[in-house]
Amino acid sequence: MANLAIIPARGGSKRIPRKNIKSFLGKPIIAYSIEAALNSNLFDEVMVSTDDEEIAEIAIKYGAKVPFLRSEKNADDYASTVDVIIEVVETYKNNDKLFDYVCCIYPTAPFVTVQKLNKSLELIKSKLLDTVFPVIQYSFPVQRAMRAFEKDFIRMIQPEYMGARSQDLEPTYHDAGQFYWLKTEKIVLQRKLWTDCTGYIEINELEAQDIDTETDWKIAELKYKMMADAGEKNPI
Description:
- By secondary structure, this protein is of the alpha/beta class.
- The chain has 6 helices and 11 strands.
- 30% of the residues lie in helices and 21% in strands.
- The longest helix has 16 residues, at 214-229.
C-alpha cells in the first residue's frame, strides 16, 4: 500500500508572519514535521503543499518534495485543509500516482513523533477506519462551561451539572492539531476530515500546543525543551 505525507504550508500567515518557516529552537518549525515524516519510513513520498517559493526552498532543503505549487484558489484565507489535500491527491492522480492513505501533517507541529505516526497508521488499518488523529482530554469538565450574558452576569450552559462531581462527568476531548491519517478514497468521496468511522489516539497536554500568538510560540518551545530534557523529544 502506498502512503503520502502532505504538509500544507501556505505563505500568508497573518497572526505570526512567516509562521511556517519561523525559527523554532534553531531551525524552521516546518523542518520538525518534515523530518518526523521522513524518519518514520512510512511514506512513499513526503511533500509540502505551498504557494510560496521561500517555503518551497526550505522544504526541499530538509528533504521534502515540492513537485508543484499550490493553486491560487487554495492559497487564500478561506481554503480548507480538505481543499488542499484533495487538490494534491488529484494532481498526483493526474500524473498516475495513487496513494491508499494520506497523512496530513501540519507545518507547525514540532511535537509530532515517529511513534505517534506509526501508532495512528496501525489503528486506521487494524480497525478499518477512515480517519485517525491525536486528541487531548479537556483539563476542566466542559459540562460546567459558562457563558456571559447581558453586561455583568454569567451562568452555566448546562445547569443540570451544577452539583455533579468532576469524576462522574464523561471525559471530553479536542483535536490536538497535529496530523490526520486519512483513507484516500474516503476523503475524496466525502470531502471532510472526520467521518462516522473516525478513531483517535490520546496524548497529554505536554505533547501539543496550539501556536497562534507569540506567547503560544514561547510556551511551545518551553514544552519542547521539557520533553527533550526528559528524553522524549521528536527522534530526528
